[in-house]
Amino acid sequence: MKDKIAVVSPDESALEGLLALAPADVEVVWVDSSRPVEVQAERMSDVAALIYAGAPFDIELIRLCPRLRLIQSASAGVDNFDVAALGEMGVRVANNHGGNAITVAEHTVALMVAARRKLVLQFESVRAGEWMGTTPERWGSQAHEIAGQTVGIVGMGFIGQAVAQRLQGWGCSLVYFDTISPPAELVEELGLRSVSLDDLLRESDIVSLHVPLNPRTRGLIGARELGLMKRTAILVNTCRGGVVDEAALIDALREGVIAGAGLDVLEQEPTPSDNPLLKMDNAAVTPHLAAMSVESGPRGTAFAVENMARVARGGEPLSVVRPV
User: Fold this and answer.
1) 176/128 same-domain check
2) Strand locations in the chain (E)
3) If I label 305, which of 118, 164, 256, 257 is the partner at 20 to 30 A Cα–Cα?
4) What would the pLDDT profile of 45-91 be if each residue is shown by its tens digit?
C-alpha cells in the first residue's frame, strides 16, 4: 500500500500540480474543504501529511485524524493555523521554505522604488493625458534616491535575506532586527548590522517588514513605532497587514509623520473601496500578489510535496514553524 498525503481545498484543480510532482510511492488524495469535517476525515483517515488551501482551518479535523503528523502551508505565512494548539496535539506546521522568497523580495524592492519615486502619481498623470501635470510640484521636494540610504529589514528569514541580497549594488546601508540570527556568513557577506527594533526605526530611511503574523507581531508597528521613524522615511510591508496598525499608518501618512508607504498587504482584504490608503499620493498599494510569479508556484509546490512525502514515509519534516 502506498503512503498517502492529501491536498485539502475547495477546488479539485489544486490537486493537479501535486500529482505531477508526487513520487511514485506516494499517493495524493483530494479532500474537499467545503464539506463537513467528518466527511473530510473519512477521506484522510490514513493520511500522514496534508497541504491546506482552504480557510478557515477547523482544528476538529485533527481530532478526527489521529495519524496526521504535518500540516504543510503553501505560503510563507502560517497565520491560518494555531501552531501551538496543533503542536500539543502532535501535529507540526511547516511553511514553504522560502519557495516564494525571490518573488516577494523583487516585489518588495519594486514597492520601495514605487513609494520613493511616486510611480503611482506619475502613472496616473500620464494616463490622464496631463503628462507631468502637477507631479513636480506635489512631489519634487521628496524625490530622493534610494542609493546611499539606510534600509532596515524587520525579520531576516528567507524573504528578508533575499531582500538584503537584492539591495546589493544599490549603495544602501543595511540594518536588521530579528529574534533569530541569520547565518554568520550571510551577515558578513552582505554587511548586515543587527540593531534593536527602536534603533532600526530611528536610523532607517526605508523600513521593510518580513515577519510572520502571530500574537507577538500583531500591531508590531503602531503609532509609537511610526513616531520613531524619520519624517522622510517610507514603510514597506509585504508580509501581513495585521503587523501594522492601519489606522495609525493612515494618520502618520496624513500628518507627515513619515513620507510614504509601499503596501502589498492590508488589515482587511479585499480592502473597502473607501480605504483612505487607496487615495493617498504617498501610498503605493498592490493587492497581496507579491508572491505570485510563474517561477514561485512550482518551486513552493515541489518543496511541499517533498516535505509531505518525507513525513508519509516516517521521516522528519523540514521548515517547521515554532509555536509562539
Assistant:
1) yes
2) 3-9, 26-32, 49-52, 70-72, 92-94, 150-154, 173-177, 193-194, 206-209, 234-237, 260-263, 283-285
3) 164
4) 889 999 987 667 888 888 899 899 999 988 888 888 889 999 999 99
Instruction: Answer yes or no: do 267 and 188 share one domain.
Output: yes
pLDDT digits (tens, 9 = 90+) for 126-180: 999 999 988 898 888 888 899 999 999 999 999 999 999 999 999 999 999 999 8
- pLDDT exceeds cutoff 90 at 291: yes
288 given a catalytic annotation: yes
Count: domains in the chain? 2
As a whole number of Å, the end-to-end CA separation of the chain is 37
pLDDT at 2: 67
CATH number at residue 153: 3.40.50.720
Whole-number average pLDDT of the chain: 92
Is the overall model pTM greater than 0.90, yes or no?
yes
Nearest-angstrom CA–CA distance, 244 and 226: 10
Q: Active site includes 117?
A: no
- Kindly tell me the sign of the dihedral angle through the C-alpha atoms of 265, 266, 272, 275: negative
Domain around 139: 101-285
User: Taking the mean position of all CA atoms in its chain, how far away is CA 54?
Assistant: 18
Query: d(Cα 147, Cα 167) in Å, to the nearest integer?
Result: 10
| Dist CA 185 CA 53 (whole Å) | 36
Indicate which residue of 38, 88, 130, 269 is catalytic. Answer: 269
Cα distances (angstroms) measured from residue 46 to each of 66, 87, 176, 288? 9, 19, 44, 35
100 vs 76: CA distance, rounded Å: 7
Q: Which of 107, 240, 299, 310 is catalytic?
A: 240
Three-state SS letters, 78-109:
CCCCCHHHHHHCCCEEECCCCCCHHHHHHHHH
Pair 262, 301 in one domain:
no
Same domain, yes or no, for 125 and 258?
yes
Instruction: Tell me whether residue 185 is one of the annotated catalytic residues.
Output: no
